[in-house]
Amino acid sequence: MIAKSWSARNKRDLIIEVWEYLDCESVGASELEQIQQALTEKFGAGALTSPASIARTVADEGAVLRHPEVFECDVKWREQNLKKWEFRKGLDFSDFSSAFESVVKLEEKRLQLQVDNKATGLKELRDIVAAARKDSLLQARSKILDGNARERLKEISQWLTVWLQSPELFSDWLDLRRRSPEYKKKFPEDT
User: Fold this and answer.
1) Could you tell me the pLDDT band of residue 1, with boundaries at 50, 70 and 90?
2) Which residues pair with 64 in a beta bridge?
3) What is the rounded CA–CA span in Å between residue 104 and residue 23?
């Protein structure tokens, strides 16, 4: 899609503005994906709307829908979202052993996405790690947890910070970190 500065101030208006800009007689998968892209560029990933919802909005404005394409595009979009959710659910950063298993999964996923040259997938993976880091930091501030649990969560959030800064170096860094005298003194139960 051609980069353009959109004037719409909300999602519904942007959907209609992009549809009018595309100047198409009917709407199918290609048009829906372009509208989704404009929504993400203008309002961020949180504003992403399903193809079916976008189709309903433009149909209300008079667009003719290519129903099989709309349906197929929506199903594909929902399947991708389910796969992302399943991957997120498989990660656990609540303790060292599960955090270590989770960073191994992250690293495998990152390498797979790099080989497949999937920039969008890599960004989504970074978003997952950033959210996990934020959760770990929030839990580490909890007064409900004992001091040891808070220290472990701070350490895990540091792991995730390093992963976000240098994912290519992370595995080596983590190995060195877990062998360091400071780490062994602080967390003898993990050595």
Assistant:
1) low
2) 26
3) 47
Asked if 103 and 156 count as a contact pair (C-beta separation under 8 A), the reply is no
Distance CA 123, CA 127 (A): 6
Amino acid at 123: K
Angle between helices 96-115 and 119-140 (to 10 degrees): 160
- Which residues, at least 6 apart from 2, have a Cβ–Cβ distance to it below 8 Å? none
Instruction: Tell me what pLDDT residue 89 has.
Output: 81
- Residue 179 is encoded by which pair of tokens? 């062998």
First to last CA, the chain: 52
Type and span of the H or E element at 64: strand 64-65
Per-residue model confidence as pLDDT tens digits over 173-187: 999 999 999 999 999
Contact 124, 112 (CB under 8 A): no
